[in-house]
Design goal:
Layout: H1 2-13, H2 17-38, H3 42-59, H4 69-89, H5 110-119
Helix pairs in contact: 1-2, 2-3, 2-4, 3-4
Length: 124
Amino acid sequence: MKNVKSRMVKRAIHGDQQAFAQLILAQTEYLTRTGYLYLSREVDVQDAISETTLIAFHSISQLQKPELFRTWLTKILIRQCYKRYEEKAYEEYDVTKLAKLPSSLVGATVDEKLDLLGGIKTTE
């Protein structure tokens, strides 16, 4: 199985678009799981995977060792996740759209309330 993958990577390096597509499809679940380790929103994970695929497609000819394809692809994905994470760090949020705290949290500290609000995700 390893030799088959290695041959497919070599074909992709030499410009075989079908081989590249098969390699990416085989890594889809792995890329998605890895993306969620860094990003929480599905749209951000999918954007990072799309950008990773595009970058990998344009630069696969630079891959020196076919056996390191997955590692190379993972490195690209992680860079894209960090890029999105940094972009989101400066976003402003409309606090009026945040969920209201239940009245049972009246005695909670400010830090506890902020932690709870930080954990609540709103759907768009």
